[in-house]
Design a protein that fits this description.
By secondary structure, the protein is an alpha/beta fold. It has 23 helices and 18 strands. The protein has four domains: about 120 residues, Rossmann fold, CATH 3.40.50; about 90 residues; about 230 residues, no CATH class; about 70 residues, no CATH class. The protein starts with a helix and ends in a 19-residue tail after the last helix.
Length: about 575
Protein backbone atom coordinates (compact mmCIF):
# COMPACT_ATOMS: atom_id res chain seq x y z
CA UNK A 1 0.00 0.00 0.00
CA UNK A 2 2.93 2.31 -0.63
CA UNK A 3 4.17 2.48 2.97
CA UNK A 4 7.78 2.08 1.90
CA UNK A 5 8.32 -1.62 2.58
CA UNK A 6 10.61 -2.09 -0.41
CA UNK A 7 12.27 1.30 0.11
CA UNK A 8 13.08 0.30 3.68
CA UNK A 9 14.80 -2.85 2.43
CA UNK A 10 16.72 -0.81 -0.16
CA UNK A 11 18.00 1.57 2.52
CA UNK A 12 18.86 -1.35 4.77
CA UNK A 13 20.93 -2.95 2.01
CA UNK A 14 22.63 0.38 1.26
CA UNK A 15 23.50 0.85 4.92
CA UNK A 16 25.18 -2.55 5.07
CA UNK A 17 26.95 -2.38 1.71
CA UNK A 18 29.58 -4.92 2.80
CA UNK A 19 26.92 -7.64 3.25
CA UNK A 20 25.22 -9.81 0.62
CA UNK A 21 21.44 -10.08 0.57
CA UNK A 22 18.92 -12.26 -1.25
CA UNK A 23 15.60 -10.60 -2.07
CA UNK A 24 13.03 -13.28 -2.82
CA UNK A 25 9.39 -12.97 -3.81
CA UNK A 26 6.64 -14.83 -5.71
CA UNK A 27 5.92 -12.47 -8.56
CA UNK A 28 8.38 -12.41 -11.46
CA UNK A 29 7.53 -8.80 -12.31
CA UNK A 30 8.20 -7.72 -8.71
CA UNK A 31 11.55 -9.53 -8.73
CA UNK A 32 12.50 -7.80 -12.00
CA UNK A 33 11.53 -4.43 -10.56
CA UNK A 34 13.67 -5.25 -7.54
CA UNK A 35 16.71 -5.62 -9.78
CA UNK A 36 16.26 -2.02 -10.88
CA UNK A 37 15.92 -0.52 -7.38
CA UNK A 38 18.18 -2.57 -5.12
CA UNK A 39 21.93 -1.94 -4.86
CA UNK A 40 24.43 -4.42 -6.29
CA UNK A 41 24.83 -6.34 -3.04
CA UNK A 42 21.24 -7.66 -3.39
CA UNK A 43 20.33 -10.62 -5.61
CA UNK A 44 16.66 -10.66 -6.66
CA UNK A 45 14.94 -13.99 -7.32
CA UNK A 46 11.56 -15.69 -7.19
CA UNK A 47 11.09 -18.82 -5.10
CA UNK A 48 10.28 -20.80 -8.22
CA UNK A 49 13.40 -19.60 -10.06
CA UNK A 50 15.55 -20.78 -7.15
CA UNK A 51 13.79 -24.15 -7.16
CA UNK A 52 14.07 -24.40 -10.94
CA UNK A 53 17.82 -23.83 -10.84
CA UNK A 54 18.23 -26.64 -8.36
CA UNK A 55 15.51 -29.13 -9.34
CA UNK A 56 13.19 -28.02 -12.13
CA UNK A 57 15.85 -27.71 -14.82
CA UNK A 58 16.54 -31.45 -14.71
CA UNK A 59 12.91 -32.20 -15.56
CA UNK A 60 12.98 -29.63 -18.35
CA UNK A 61 16.06 -31.28 -19.85
CA UNK A 62 14.21 -34.60 -19.91
CA UNK A 63 11.09 -33.04 -21.45
CA UNK A 64 9.16 -33.84 -18.29
CA UNK A 65 8.25 -30.33 -17.16
CA UNK A 66 4.72 -28.94 -17.29
CA UNK A 67 4.81 -25.19 -16.67
CA UNK A 68 1.14 -25.15 -15.68
CA UNK A 69 -0.72 -27.22 -13.11
CA UNK A 70 -1.56 -30.83 -13.86
CA UNK A 71 -5.10 -30.56 -15.15
CA UNK A 72 -8.00 -32.49 -13.71
CA UNK A 73 -8.52 -33.87 -17.21
CA UNK A 74 -4.99 -35.32 -17.22
CA UNK A 75 -5.42 -36.78 -13.75
CA UNK A 76 -8.70 -38.41 -14.81
CA UNK A 77 -6.75 -40.50 -17.31
CA UNK A 78 -4.32 -41.63 -14.61
CA UNK A 79 -6.80 -42.89 -12.00
CA UNK A 80 -9.00 -45.95 -12.07
CA UNK A 81 -12.72 -45.95 -12.69
CA UNK A 82 -14.72 -46.75 -9.58
CA UNK A 83 -18.35 -47.72 -9.43
CA UNK A 84 -20.86 -44.90 -8.79
CA UNK A 85 -18.13 -42.23 -8.84
CA UNK A 86 -17.80 -39.63 -11.58
CA UNK A 87 -14.25 -39.72 -12.91
CA UNK A 88 -13.80 -35.95 -13.27
CA UNK A 89 -15.16 -35.30 -9.78
CA UNK A 90 -12.75 -37.82 -8.32
CA UNK A 91 -9.89 -36.41 -10.37
CA UNK A 92 -10.68 -32.98 -8.91
CA UNK A 93 -10.32 -34.26 -5.34
CA UNK A 94 -7.04 -36.00 -6.22
CA UNK A 95 -5.84 -32.75 -7.82
CA UNK A 96 -6.72 -30.80 -4.67
CA UNK A 97 -4.93 -33.40 -2.55
CA UNK A 98 -1.75 -32.94 -4.58
CA UNK A 99 -2.00 -29.13 -4.47
CA UNK A 100 -2.52 -29.15 -0.71
CA UNK A 101 0.48 -31.43 -0.29
CA UNK A 102 2.66 -29.21 -2.49
CA UNK A 103 1.72 -26.17 -0.39
CA UNK A 104 2.34 -27.96 2.91
CA UNK A 105 5.63 -28.54 4.70
CA UNK A 106 4.86 -32.25 5.09
CA UNK A 107 7.11 -35.01 3.79
CA UNK A 108 4.38 -37.43 2.75
CA UNK A 109 0.86 -37.19 1.33
CA UNK A 110 -1.71 -38.00 4.00
CA UNK A 111 -5.43 -37.61 4.71
CA UNK A 112 -4.88 -34.08 6.02
CA UNK A 113 -4.21 -33.01 2.44
CA UNK A 114 -7.49 -34.35 1.09
CA UNK A 115 -10.38 -31.90 0.64
CA UNK A 116 -13.14 -31.90 3.23
CA UNK A 117 -15.86 -31.22 0.66
CA UNK A 118 -16.43 -31.99 -2.98
CA UNK A 119 -19.14 -31.12 -5.49
CA UNK A 120 -20.95 -34.20 -6.73
CA UNK A 121 -22.33 -34.61 -10.25
CA UNK A 122 -25.45 -32.67 -9.22
CA UNK A 123 -23.36 -29.71 -8.04
CA UNK A 124 -24.16 -30.38 -4.38
CA UNK A 125 -21.41 -29.94 -1.78
CA UNK A 126 -20.84 -33.28 -0.10
CA UNK A 127 -18.50 -34.40 2.66
CA UNK A 128 -15.63 -36.61 1.54
CA UNK A 129 -15.90 -39.91 3.42
CA UNK A 130 -13.00 -41.53 5.22
CA UNK A 131 -12.84 -44.33 2.65
CA UNK A 132 -12.77 -41.83 -0.22
CA UNK A 133 -10.01 -39.88 1.51
CA UNK A 134 -7.88 -42.99 1.72
CA UNK A 135 -8.41 -43.68 -1.98
CA UNK A 136 -7.47 -40.05 -2.76
CA UNK A 137 -4.26 -40.43 -0.77
CA UNK A 138 -3.30 -43.67 -2.52
CA UNK A 139 -3.95 -42.27 -5.99
CA UNK A 140 -2.20 -38.96 -5.24
CA UNK A 141 0.81 -40.88 -3.90
CA UNK A 142 1.01 -42.95 -7.07
CA UNK A 143 0.86 -39.87 -9.29
CA UNK A 144 3.47 -38.05 -7.19
CA UNK A 145 5.75 -41.10 -7.27
CA UNK A 146 5.62 -41.14 -11.07
CA UNK A 147 5.97 -37.36 -11.37
CA UNK A 148 9.26 -37.51 -9.49
CA UNK A 149 10.78 -40.04 -11.90
CA UNK A 150 13.22 -38.45 -14.30
CA UNK A 151 13.38 -41.63 -16.38
CA UNK A 152 11.01 -44.46 -17.17
CA UNK A 153 7.93 -42.43 -18.08
CA UNK A 154 8.22 -42.98 -21.83
CA UNK A 155 4.83 -41.46 -22.70
CA UNK A 156 5.48 -38.56 -20.32
CA UNK A 157 2.05 -38.79 -18.74
CA UNK A 158 3.40 -37.74 -15.38
CA UNK A 159 5.10 -34.41 -15.97
CA UNK A 160 6.55 -32.42 -13.10
CA UNK A 161 4.81 -29.12 -12.35
CA UNK A 162 6.25 -25.85 -11.04
CA UNK A 163 4.71 -26.34 -7.60
CA UNK A 164 5.91 -29.93 -7.74
CA UNK A 165 9.58 -29.08 -8.21
CA UNK A 166 9.26 -26.35 -5.57
CA UNK A 167 8.00 -29.05 -3.21
CA UNK A 168 10.90 -31.35 -4.11
CA UNK A 169 13.30 -28.50 -3.44
CA UNK A 170 11.72 -27.88 -0.04
CA UNK A 171 12.01 -31.55 0.88
CA UNK A 172 15.74 -31.42 0.13
CA UNK A 173 16.18 -28.77 2.86
CA UNK A 174 18.17 -26.38 0.63
CA UNK A 175 20.73 -24.03 2.12
CA UNK A 176 21.00 -20.69 0.33
CA UNK A 177 24.68 -20.11 0.92
CA UNK A 178 26.56 -16.91 0.21
CA UNK A 179 24.04 -14.55 1.79
CA UNK A 180 24.19 -12.72 5.10
CA UNK A 181 20.44 -12.19 5.18
CA UNK A 182 17.32 -12.93 3.17
CA UNK A 183 14.56 -10.43 2.42
CA UNK A 184 11.23 -12.23 1.92
CA UNK A 185 8.70 -9.93 0.25
CA UNK A 186 4.92 -10.50 0.23
CA UNK A 187 5.43 -12.77 3.24
CA UNK A 188 1.68 -12.87 3.88
CA UNK A 189 1.38 -15.08 0.79
CA UNK A 190 3.95 -17.70 1.80
CA UNK A 191 2.83 -21.32 1.79
CA UNK A 192 3.96 -23.57 4.65
CA UNK A 193 6.39 -25.20 2.19
CA UNK A 194 8.08 -21.85 1.53
CA UNK A 195 8.04 -20.94 5.23
CA UNK A 196 9.88 -24.20 5.89
CA UNK A 197 12.54 -23.28 3.32
CA UNK A 198 12.98 -19.78 4.72
CA UNK A 199 13.16 -20.81 8.37
CA UNK A 200 15.69 -23.54 7.65
CA UNK A 201 18.26 -20.93 6.55
CA UNK A 202 21.12 -20.15 8.91
CA UNK A 203 21.43 -16.49 7.93
CA UNK A 204 19.34 -13.52 9.00
CA UNK A 205 15.73 -13.35 7.81
CA UNK A 206 13.66 -10.22 7.26
CA UNK A 207 10.00 -10.79 6.41
CA UNK A 208 8.11 -7.97 4.72
CA UNK A 209 4.44 -7.87 3.85
CA UNK A 210 0.94 -6.66 4.52
CA UNK A 211 -1.57 -9.07 6.10
CA UNK A 212 -4.37 -7.08 4.47
CA UNK A 213 -3.00 -7.98 1.04
CA UNK A 214 -3.28 -11.71 1.60
CA UNK A 215 -5.20 -12.85 -1.49
CA UNK A 216 -3.79 -16.31 -2.11
CA UNK A 217 -5.25 -18.44 0.68
CA UNK A 218 -6.94 -20.51 -2.04
CA UNK A 219 -3.42 -21.63 -3.00
CA UNK A 220 -2.55 -22.63 0.54
CA UNK A 221 -0.94 -19.35 1.62
CA UNK A 222 -0.67 -18.63 5.34
CA UNK A 223 0.01 -15.32 7.02
CA UNK A 224 3.66 -15.82 7.86
CA UNK A 225 3.82 -12.38 9.44
CA UNK A 226 1.65 -13.66 12.30
CA UNK A 227 2.77 -17.28 12.52
CA UNK A 228 6.57 -16.99 12.55
CA UNK A 229 8.45 -16.20 15.76
CA UNK A 230 10.28 -12.90 15.55
CA UNK A 231 12.77 -10.74 17.38
CA UNK A 232 11.54 -7.37 16.12
CA UNK A 233 8.34 -6.10 14.49
CA UNK A 234 8.02 -2.73 12.77
CA UNK A 235 4.72 -1.32 11.49
CA UNK A 236 4.63 1.03 8.51
CA UNK A 237 1.34 2.92 8.34
CA UNK A 238 2.35 6.09 6.47
CA UNK A 239 1.73 5.69 2.75
CA UNK A 240 4.06 7.50 0.39
CA UNK A 241 2.10 6.35 -2.65
CA UNK A 242 -1.08 8.35 -2.20
CA UNK A 243 -2.65 11.22 -0.33
CA UNK A 244 -5.21 11.29 2.50
CA UNK A 245 -8.27 10.74 0.30
CA UNK A 246 -7.20 7.34 -1.04
CA UNK A 247 -5.71 6.41 2.33
CA UNK A 248 -9.09 7.13 3.92
CA UNK A 249 -10.87 4.74 1.55
CA UNK A 250 -8.30 2.02 2.25
CA UNK A 251 -8.45 2.57 6.00
CA UNK A 252 -12.26 2.49 5.91
CA UNK A 253 -12.23 -0.92 4.19
CA UNK A 254 -9.98 -2.22 6.98
CA UNK A 255 -12.20 -0.63 9.62
CA UNK A 256 -15.60 -1.75 8.31
CA UNK A 257 -14.63 -5.14 6.90
CA UNK A 258 -11.83 -6.28 9.19
CA UNK A 259 -12.27 -4.19 12.36
CA UNK A 260 -8.70 -2.87 12.07
CA UNK A 261 -8.63 0.39 13.99
CA UNK A 262 -5.39 0.44 15.96
CA UNK A 263 -3.02 0.79 12.98
CA UNK A 264 -4.69 3.24 10.63
CA UNK A 265 -3.33 3.71 7.13
CA UNK A 266 -2.33 7.36 6.72
CA UNK A 267 -1.77 9.16 3.44
CA UNK A 268 0.92 11.67 2.60
CA UNK A 269 0.52 15.22 1.38
CA UNK A 270 0.22 14.23 -2.29
CA UNK A 271 -2.71 15.65 -4.19
CA UNK A 272 -5.46 13.17 -4.85
CA UNK A 273 -9.17 12.66 -5.32
CA UNK A 274 -11.73 9.87 -5.03
CA UNK A 275 -14.74 11.61 -6.56
CA UNK A 276 -14.10 11.33 -10.29
CA UNK A 277 -10.93 13.15 -11.32
CA UNK A 278 -8.40 11.41 -13.55
CA UNK A 279 -4.82 12.09 -14.55
CA UNK A 280 -2.07 10.21 -16.34
CA UNK A 281 -2.51 6.62 -17.44
CA UNK A 282 -5.84 5.07 -16.46
CA UNK A 283 -5.92 1.54 -15.07
CA UNK A 284 -9.08 -0.54 -14.80
CA UNK A 285 -8.82 -3.19 -12.08
CA UNK A 286 -11.29 -6.05 -11.82
CA UNK A 287 -12.02 -9.01 -9.61
CA UNK A 288 -12.47 -11.43 -12.52
CA UNK A 289 -11.10 -12.06 -16.00
CA UNK A 290 -14.64 -11.89 -17.36
CA UNK A 291 -14.74 -8.22 -16.46
CA UNK A 292 -11.26 -7.69 -17.91
CA UNK A 293 -12.47 -9.07 -21.24
CA UNK A 294 -15.51 -6.80 -21.14
CA UNK A 295 -13.25 -3.81 -20.47
CA UNK A 296 -11.10 -4.82 -23.44
CA UNK A 297 -14.20 -5.05 -25.65
CA UNK A 298 -15.43 -1.60 -24.61
CA UNK A 299 -12.06 0.08 -25.01
CA UNK A 300 -11.16 -1.46 -28.36
CA UNK A 301 -14.66 -0.83 -29.67
CA UNK A 302 -14.27 2.93 -29.59
CA UNK A 303 -14.23 4.91 -32.82
CA UNK A 304 -10.81 6.35 -32.07
CA UNK A 305 -8.16 3.59 -32.03
CA UNK A 306 -6.45 3.18 -28.67
CA UNK A 307 -3.71 1.01 -27.25
CA UNK A 308 -4.34 -1.26 -24.29
CA UNK A 309 -2.10 -3.38 -22.10
CA UNK A 310 -3.44 -6.39 -20.23
CA UNK A 311 -1.47 -6.61 -16.99
CA UNK A 312 0.41 -9.88 -17.04
CA UNK A 313 0.16 -10.20 -20.83
CA UNK A 314 -2.28 -11.76 -23.29
CA UNK A 315 -0.78 -15.24 -22.97
CA UNK A 316 -1.42 -15.34 -19.26
CA UNK A 317 -4.88 -13.91 -19.78
CA UNK A 318 -5.69 -16.77 -22.15
CA UNK A 319 -7.10 -14.90 -25.14
CA UNK A 320 -6.03 -17.64 -27.56
CA UNK A 321 -7.80 -20.26 -25.46
CA UNK A 322 -11.00 -18.20 -25.57
CA UNK A 323 -10.73 -18.18 -29.35
CA UNK A 324 -10.17 -21.95 -29.41
CA UNK A 325 -13.20 -22.52 -27.17
CA UNK A 326 -15.25 -20.49 -29.65
CA UNK A 327 -13.96 -22.68 -32.49
CA UNK A 328 -15.01 -25.73 -30.50
CA UNK A 329 -18.49 -24.25 -30.08
CA UNK A 330 -19.01 -24.14 -33.85
CA UNK A 331 -20.78 -27.02 -35.64
CA UNK A 332 -18.30 -29.60 -36.93
CA UNK A 333 -19.14 -29.06 -40.62
CA UNK A 334 -18.80 -25.28 -40.31
CA UNK A 335 -15.54 -25.68 -38.45
CA UNK A 336 -14.15 -27.84 -41.24
CA UNK A 337 -15.53 -25.59 -43.96
CA UNK A 338 -13.91 -22.50 -42.44
CA UNK A 339 -10.73 -24.49 -41.70
CA UNK A 340 -10.83 -23.50 -38.05
CA UNK A 341 -7.89 -25.19 -36.37
CA UNK A 342 -7.91 -25.57 -32.58
CA UNK A 343 -4.37 -25.00 -31.34
CA UNK A 344 -4.83 -25.49 -27.60
CA UNK A 345 -4.00 -29.14 -26.89
CA UNK A 346 -6.49 -29.37 -24.03
CA UNK A 347 -9.39 -27.87 -26.00
CA UNK A 348 -8.47 -30.05 -28.98
CA UNK A 349 -9.10 -33.16 -26.88
CA UNK A 350 -12.75 -32.14 -26.62
CA UNK A 351 -12.99 -31.69 -30.37
CA UNK A 352 -12.22 -35.38 -30.65
CA UNK A 353 -14.65 -36.44 -27.92
CA UNK A 354 -17.67 -34.65 -26.43
CA UNK A 355 -17.34 -31.23 -27.99
CA UNK A 356 -18.30 -27.86 -26.51
CA UNK A 357 -21.13 -29.18 -24.33
CA UNK A 358 -18.80 -31.79 -22.89
CA UNK A 359 -16.24 -29.11 -22.09
CA UNK A 360 -18.87 -27.01 -20.34
CA UNK A 361 -20.09 -29.97 -18.30
CA UNK A 362 -16.50 -30.78 -17.38
CA UNK A 363 -15.83 -27.21 -16.19
CA UNK A 364 -18.99 -27.24 -14.08
CA UNK A 365 -18.26 -30.71 -12.68
CA UNK A 366 -14.79 -29.81 -11.44
CA UNK A 367 -15.72 -26.22 -10.53
CA UNK A 368 -12.97 -24.76 -12.73
CA UNK A 369 -13.69 -21.03 -12.39
CA UNK A 370 -11.13 -19.93 -14.96
CA UNK A 371 -12.44 -22.29 -17.61
CA UNK A 372 -16.05 -21.42 -16.74
CA UNK A 373 -15.21 -17.74 -17.20
CA UNK A 374 -13.78 -18.34 -20.67
CA UNK A 375 -16.81 -20.42 -21.65
CA UNK A 376 -19.12 -17.68 -20.34
CA UNK A 377 -17.28 -15.13 -22.51
CA UNK A 378 -17.80 -17.32 -25.58
CA UNK A 379 -21.47 -17.85 -24.75
CA UNK A 380 -22.08 -14.14 -24.30
CA UNK A 381 -20.29 -12.81 -27.37
CA UNK A 382 -20.85 -15.84 -29.66
CA UNK A 383 -20.18 -14.99 -33.31
CA UNK A 384 -18.41 -11.75 -32.35
CA UNK A 385 -15.53 -13.62 -30.70
CA UNK A 386 -13.20 -13.80 -33.76
CA UNK A 387 -13.62 -10.09 -34.45
CA UNK A 388 -13.19 -9.14 -30.78
CA UNK A 389 -10.12 -11.32 -30.32
CA UNK A 390 -8.56 -9.79 -33.43
CA UNK A 391 -9.32 -6.26 -32.19
CA UNK A 392 -7.89 -6.93 -28.75
CA UNK A 393 -4.75 -8.53 -30.18
CA UNK A 394 -4.16 -5.66 -32.63
CA UNK A 395 -4.78 -3.02 -29.94
CA UNK A 396 -2.59 -4.68 -27.33
CA UNK A 397 0.95 -3.47 -26.64
CA UNK A 398 3.46 -5.49 -24.66
CA UNK A 399 4.91 -2.48 -22.84
CA UNK A 400 2.51 -0.74 -20.46
CA UNK A 401 4.26 2.57 -21.05
CA UNK A 402 2.99 2.56 -24.65
CA UNK A 403 -0.64 1.92 -23.68
CA UNK A 404 -3.46 4.42 -23.30
CA UNK A 405 -5.23 2.15 -20.82
CA UNK A 406 -4.12 -0.69 -18.57
CA UNK A 407 -6.60 -3.42 -17.67
CA UNK A 408 -6.29 -6.48 -15.48
CA UNK A 409 -7.24 -8.34 -12.34
CA UNK A 410 -6.14 -7.38 -8.86
CA UNK A 411 -4.11 -10.59 -8.64
CA UNK A 412 -2.05 -9.50 -11.64
CA UNK A 413 -1.71 -5.93 -10.34
CA UNK A 414 -0.38 -7.00 -6.94
CA UNK A 415 2.72 -5.02 -6.02
CA UNK A 416 2.19 -2.45 -8.78
CA UNK A 417 0.98 1.16 -8.68
CA UNK A 418 -0.83 3.42 -11.15
CA UNK A 419 -1.71 7.11 -11.49
CA UNK A 420 -5.47 6.62 -11.80
CA UNK A 421 -7.35 3.47 -10.85
CA UNK A 422 -10.94 2.60 -11.72
CA UNK A 423 -12.26 -0.10 -9.39
CA UNK A 424 -14.69 -2.34 -11.27
CA UNK A 425 -18.08 -3.28 -9.88
CA UNK A 426 -17.43 -7.03 -9.83
CA UNK A 427 -16.08 -7.21 -6.29
CA UNK A 428 -18.33 -8.05 -3.32
CA UNK A 429 -21.64 -6.29 -3.94
CA UNK A 430 -22.46 -4.06 -0.99
CA UNK A 431 -26.08 -2.90 -1.24
CA UNK A 432 -27.25 0.61 -0.48
CA UNK A 433 -28.52 0.53 3.09
CA UNK A 434 -29.48 4.17 3.39
CA UNK A 435 -33.27 3.85 3.45
CA UNK A 436 -35.51 2.07 5.92
CA UNK A 437 -36.94 -0.25 3.28
CA UNK A 438 -33.45 -1.36 2.27
CA UNK A 439 -32.24 -2.07 5.78
CA UNK A 440 -33.93 -5.45 5.59
CA UNK A 441 -31.59 -6.64 2.83
CA UNK A 442 -29.84 -9.83 3.86
CA UNK A 443 -26.27 -8.58 3.90
CA UNK A 444 -23.43 -8.63 6.38
CA UNK A 445 -19.68 -8.20 6.09
CA UNK A 446 -19.14 -11.60 7.71
CA UNK A 447 -20.93 -13.38 4.86
CA UNK A 448 -17.75 -13.11 2.79
CA UNK A 449 -14.25 -14.52 3.36
CA UNK A 450 -11.52 -12.10 4.37
CA UNK A 451 -9.74 -12.61 1.05
CA UNK A 452 -12.58 -10.81 -0.72
CA UNK A 453 -12.13 -7.66 1.35
CA UNK A 454 -8.36 -7.93 0.94
CA UNK A 455 -8.85 -7.96 -2.84
CA UNK A 456 -10.84 -4.74 -2.65
CA UNK A 457 -8.22 -3.18 -0.38
CA UNK A 458 -5.41 -4.14 -2.78
CA UNK A 459 -7.36 -2.65 -5.71
CA UNK A 460 -7.89 0.67 -3.93
CA UNK A 461 -4.30 0.96 -2.75
CA UNK A 462 -2.85 0.55 -6.26
CA UNK A 463 -3.86 4.17 -6.97
CA UNK A 464 -1.25 6.90 -6.61
CA UNK A 465 -3.29 10.02 -7.41
CA UNK A 466 -6.88 9.34 -8.36
CA UNK A 467 -9.38 6.63 -7.51
CA UNK A 468 -12.75 6.15 -9.18
CA UNK A 469 -14.97 4.02 -6.98
CA UNK A 470 -17.72 1.62 -7.90
CA UNK A 471 -21.20 2.23 -6.50
CA UNK A 472 -20.69 -0.79 -4.27
CA UNK A 473 -17.55 0.75 -2.79
CA UNK A 474 -19.46 3.98 -2.16
CA UNK A 475 -22.08 1.93 -0.30
CA UNK A 476 -19.31 0.34 1.77
CA UNK A 477 -18.04 3.76 2.82
CA UNK A 478 -21.60 4.67 3.80
CA UNK A 479 -21.50 1.84 6.35
CA UNK A 480 -18.77 3.85 8.08
CA UNK A 481 -20.88 7.01 7.89
CA UNK A 482 -19.09 8.51 4.88
CA UNK A 483 -21.73 9.84 2.48
CA UNK A 484 -19.76 12.69 0.91
CA UNK A 485 -21.91 15.32 2.60
CA UNK A 486 -20.99 18.78 3.76
CA UNK A 487 -22.86 21.56 5.49
CA UNK A 488 -23.35 24.95 3.82
CA UNK A 489 -25.16 28.16 4.62
CA UNK A 490 -28.76 28.25 3.45
CA UNK A 491 -28.05 31.66 1.96
CA UNK A 492 -25.63 29.98 -0.48
CA UNK A 493 -28.22 27.40 -1.53
CA UNK A 494 -31.00 29.92 -2.12
CA UNK A 495 -29.14 32.89 -3.53
CA UNK A 496 -31.95 33.96 -5.84
CA UNK A 497 -34.65 33.45 -3.23
CA UNK A 498 -36.36 30.63 -5.14
CA UNK A 499 -37.36 27.38 -3.45
CA UNK A 500 -34.61 24.75 -3.56
CA UNK A 501 -35.71 21.20 -4.33
CA UNK A 502 -34.18 18.20 -2.58
CA UNK A 503 -31.66 16.47 -4.87
CA UNK A 504 -32.65 12.92 -3.85
CA UNK A 505 -34.39 11.50 -6.97
CA UNK A 506 -37.32 9.93 -5.11
CA UNK A 507 -37.96 12.99 -2.93
CA UNK A 508 -40.32 15.84 -3.83
CA UNK A 509 -39.64 18.03 -0.78
CA UNK A 510 -38.02 21.45 -0.81
CA UNK A 511 -35.54 22.92 1.63
CA UNK A 512 -36.85 24.76 4.68
CA UNK A 513 -36.15 28.46 4.13
CA UNK A 514 -36.11 29.00 7.90
CA UNK A 515 -32.92 26.94 8.29
CA UNK A 516 -29.57 28.64 8.65
CA UNK A 517 -27.63 25.58 7.47
CA UNK A 518 -28.27 22.97 4.80
CA UNK A 519 -26.60 19.67 3.89
CA UNK A 520 -25.15 19.17 0.42
CA UNK A 521 -24.17 15.89 -1.27
CA UNK A 522 -20.92 16.33 -3.18
CA UNK A 523 -20.86 15.24 -6.84
CA UNK A 524 -19.33 11.84 -7.54
CA UNK A 525 -18.39 10.01 -10.73
CA UNK A 526 -18.26 6.23 -10.51
CA UNK A 527 -15.86 3.86 -12.23
CA UNK A 528 -18.58 2.73 -14.65
CA UNK A 529 -18.96 6.29 -15.92
CA UNK A 530 -22.24 7.01 -14.15
CA UNK A 531 -22.45 10.24 -12.19
CA UNK A 532 -24.21 11.47 -9.10
CA UNK A 533 -24.54 15.21 -9.57
CA UNK A 534 -25.10 15.67 -5.85
CA UNK A 535 -27.07 18.60 -4.51
CA UNK A 536 -28.90 19.79 -1.42
CA UNK A 537 -30.90 17.54 0.92
CA UNK A 538 -34.17 18.33 2.62
CA UNK A 539 -34.67 17.86 6.35
CA UNK A 540 -36.22 14.37 5.97
CA UNK A 541 -33.46 13.05 3.69
CA UNK A 542 -30.82 14.52 5.96
CA UNK A 543 -32.41 12.78 8.95
CA UNK A 544 -32.24 9.52 7.02
CA UNK A 545 -28.48 9.94 6.72
CA UNK A 546 -27.56 11.71 9.96
CA UNK A 547 -30.15 10.21 12.28
CA UNK A 548 -30.11 11.75 15.76
CA UNK A 549 -27.40 14.21 14.71
CA UNK A 550 -29.72 15.94 12.25
CA UNK A 551 -30.63 18.83 14.62
CA UNK A 552 -26.96 19.86 14.59
CA UNK A 553 -27.22 20.65 10.89
CA UNK A 554 -30.40 22.71 11.06
CA UNK A 555 -30.44 25.95 12.98
CA UNK A 556 -33.68 27.91 12.57
CA UNK A 557 -33.39 31.62 12.06
CA UNK A 558 -33.29 33.43 15.39
CA UNK A 559 -36.54 35.35 15.70
CA UNK A 560 -36.32 38.71 17.37
CA UNK A 561 -38.64 38.59 20.34
CA UNK A 562 -39.95 41.84 21.85
CA UNK A 563 -38.52 42.46 25.27
CA UNK A 564 -41.17 42.55 27.96
CA UNK A 565 -40.59 45.43 30.32
Amino acid sequence: SGTGKTSTLVKYAEKFADLNFLYVTFNKAVAERGRSVFPRNVTCKTFHSLAFGSVGKHYKEKGKLNFSKMSVYSISSLIRNRKDQALFVRAKTVSQTLENFFASSDKEICEEHTPVWFKNTHGVRTLVSGAEKQINVEEAKEIWHNMKKLDGDVEKKYKMTCDGYLKLWQLRKPQLSGYDAIFVDEAQDCTPAIVDIVLSQRCGIILVGDPHQQIYTFRGAVNTLHSVRHTHVYYLTQSFRFGPEIAYVGATILDVCKKIRNKTLVGGNQKGDVRGSTEGKITLLSRSNFNVFEDAVKLTGRETPIKIHVIGGLDRFGLSRIYDIWKLSQPTDERKKAKLVINDSFIKKWEETRGFLGLREYAEAIDDKDLETKIAIVEKYKERIPELVQKIESSHVSQNGMADYLIGTVHQAKGLEFDTVLVADDFVQVPCLCSDSQRRINFSIGMYPEDEWNLLYVAVTRAKKYLLMSKSLEHLLALAGERFLRVELMSEAAKDGAAVACSVPSCTETLQPSSRLVVKKLPLTHSDGSSDAGGYLCHACTRQRFGSLTPLTFFPELQEQPIQL
